[in-house]
Amino acid sequence: MKSSSTRHCRSLREKRSRCSSLSSLFICARCATEIVDRQVLKVNGLTWHLKCFQCSVCAVSLSQHNSCFIRNKEIFCRTDYNSTFGIKCTRCGLQVSANHWVRRAGNDIYHLACFACFFCKRQLSTGEEFGLMENQILCRLHYDIMLQNLQHMSDKGNIIHLDGDLPIQYLPKPPKRPRTSFTSEQLQIMQTHFIQDKNPDAQTLQRLADMTGLSRRVIQVWFQNCRARQKRNPLHDSVPPQDRYQTFAMPFLSDNRYFLPSGRPETH
């Protein structure tokens, strides 16, 4: 996360040193004035007044902190450094934390819920083929439709600019009622929790939504359907056959294959 120009400073208290007004001349890296205080803060070869050692974003004093981040002589607390320079989701632009489930397409990183087709809004599953156009993700179906539309426009002699928006009449229409489908990973998480708690509260639903990449409403409806099936058939399994899964290990989500407009499918 830290570039070559970024240094992580630790043990700031140990960096303090008493200075003699006669032996050395210290210039504050923040206010550019001479430091004549009895104490001077030295970090990575730079010096500060104690009062000037503040986060460049939130202005909180870092002189009593054990760590900080410095980039281009600017000081940051951990929170503001991560929000400013941390990894962000290509689609929503929000920060990707270490505990987030993500998908990767080439050099781009997406939240699990953000990795969905631009047209039909369907979340794509692990190993599913997809296309990239204008930095937008398309499922294989709508990617093929888009290529057909582009070919049709080219055959009619229209000028195609791939760096701009396509005319709306050439865009494929999304289905009115897309059917929600679940991956094996998502089903495993929900079914495991259903055994422990058949009626989760709002906080638990949100936690499951973060883990699966599904919306909280979709998960809530899934639990409602399972409870209804169990109530109708108390002696039978409440999980429908199409939602059952086989136990398997899933330590990480693998990268997906995707199609580029001008080439064969590549694996990253």
UniProtKB/TrEMBL annotation:
Residues 175-234 bind DNA. PROSITE patterns: HOMEOBOX_1, HOMEOBOX_2, LIM_DOMAIN_1, LIM_DOMAIN_2. One of its GO terms (biological process) is forebrain neuron development. It is found in: Nucleus. Its main location: nucleus. Signal peptide: none annotated. Residues 173-233 form the Homeobox domain. InterPro entries: HD (IPR001356), Homeobox_CS (IPR017970), LIM_Homeobox_TF (IPR050453), Znf_LIM (IPR001781). GO terms for cellular component: nucleus. One of its GO terms (molecular function) is metal ion binding. Residues 26-87, 88-149 form the LIM zinc-binding domain. Keywords: DNA-binding, Homeobox, LIM domain, Metal-binding, Nucleus, Repeat, Transcription, Transcription regulation, Zinc. Pfam families: Homeodomain (PF00046), LIM (PF00412). The keyword Zinc applies. This is LIM/homeobox protein Lhx6.
